[in-house]
Amino acid sequence: MRRSKLAALVPLTGAAFVLVAALGAPAQATRSAVARPAAKSTTATRTARSAAASSPSSSASESFTPLNGFGSSWAGPAIDQWAEDVHTQGIVINFDPDGSAAGRQQYALDQADFAASDIAFLTTPDPFQGGTENPKYAYSYIPIVAGGTSFLYNLQVGGKRITNLRLSGETIMKIFTGQISNWDNPEITADYGAQLPSIPITVVVRADGSGASYQFSDWMLHEFPSDWASFCAKSGGPTTNCGPTEFYPDTALPNGKSLNGSDLVANYIASPSNNGAIGYDEYAYALDSNIPVVAMENAAGYDVLPTASNVAIALQKAVINEDPSSVDFLMQNLDSVYGYNDPRTYPLSSYSYLIVPRTSRTIDGSTAGPPPIFNDSKGYTLSTWLNFVLCGAQQTAAALGYSPLPYPLITGGYLQFGYIPGAIHVGTVASFIASCKNPTYYDGQNLLIKQAPYPSPCQFHTAPLSCTVKNGKAVAATAADTGTSTSSTGKTSDSTGNGSTINPNTGQVNNGGTGDGSGVAINASPVNLSGPAPQEAWVFAVLIVLALLAAIAAPTVLGSWLERRRTADSSAGPGGTAPPPAAPRPGGPPSAPRRRS
Q1: How confident is the model at residue 586, as a pLDDT?
Q2: Are residues 170 and 309 in the same domain?
Q3: CATH assignment of the domain containing 183
Q4: Which of 2, 175, 185, 328 has the most CB atoms around its CB within 10 Å?
Q5: CA dist 3 to 11, 17, 550, 563, Å?
Q6: Which of 148, 37, 92, 72 is nearest to 353 (CA)?
Q7: φ, ψ (nearest 5 deg) of residue 166
């Protein structure tokens, strides 16, 4: 009897362990997401994976050759996701996000089928490492995605983390050139709207060759040339004519930290132990690791996030090389993006590219062919995947933390992949565009730009930190303002005067909100940085399991006890007597023996 009952409890115990594992899974998913950005467990990824329905179809008889690519970690999350989307079709894309500089080098050394880079091959030496790059194999640049380089930070005050930091471009520049080294600096106070405590700033930069470092330093070079020149010289670079760099120096930073790869930068900043850290990375890493980013003041004076629409608005001012005969066809010049005064623009917006093999091209007077490692079979696979990347994949760019490519770059990309050896044929440009499922255009209009929302008055840089909109103007929120709350941008707004929050992921205004919105005290939220699950959650999980086990096992144990008592009471034994028979009921049969309960 005992053995059978024990056997009955075994599956119950197994179920309990399954329940514990299920309750603990979210914490493990969080840790995995931080360690590997591409393996997302967020709504963005679930949305992104639905793009597989738009991926290129293939028959069972069709075979594809696996491809190996290297390069940009800035574009890494998008490349990884879009490679996963087509995996069920038999297309295998192996991508190592080892940085733009490494990707270009691998291509030039005939060790990659394609490379990803945020910038072109260097025609002038990097001020801190390396010289010019002169690849001997033919190549083309194909844009794959747009995005914003964001400033991720970790600020905790009184056990809570700040999520509404807003800074001007000048303040950001001074932080990353060592001129501001503590969060209580008056210039930070003026930008943010409240005094932060004395916390040393840890500036986290990329140690490897990074396109993000190049774009960031290029912005500083054009917006603050004298400051960049001084920092460059102090860091051991040229004393004159110091250009942008992929190898950001940290020697002149009071508390600098150099790390390889975007994922390590994000992981470091996400750690609760690294209070005071700030670094730069593509917005996708911030969304994936649940790290707040700085609302950056643009040329129009509004504090904005790198949302899909803000990036698209900014890149209207990018100057694109439109000469198909140029080796730099489709490459970008962002000088006019940085100072664009549209209120919706995010200043550090840019495109990322793939470097793909080309049948032939004249380079420096000589005719070059594709890398020997590449062949027509690989070209068929690569062009099939790129057909998806330029069209259907763009539907999920925003959910991943990027911005979809606009029509002109999609068209240019189509023209480029036609030169890939063994490329598929998808018809004319008109037929390609007609069948392309890019989400930005409909009936000849760029909907992303046409429908881009304007920022709230509470996002203007002089607006109160705790803010609401009344009669179209930003005013300080009070306890009487119902439903007001500060957000990651440090503002609340509502044209009706009732107040509403700004979604930190989209930059758009939400309806309603919570919080008292009183005064200009520092607005912080409970610390929930990426890492192990809180101990309280495990205690709660164990209590639930124990309660379930007790509820399931109690009837069996209680029944066995009652059965033993009944047997003992129904027969005489040492020190006891059998119960007396019950008296017969009048007019009826004798009643059944009385049981004890």
Answers
A1: 35
A2: yes
A3: 3.40.190.10
A4: 175
A5: 14, 21, 19, 17
A6: 72
A7: -130, 135
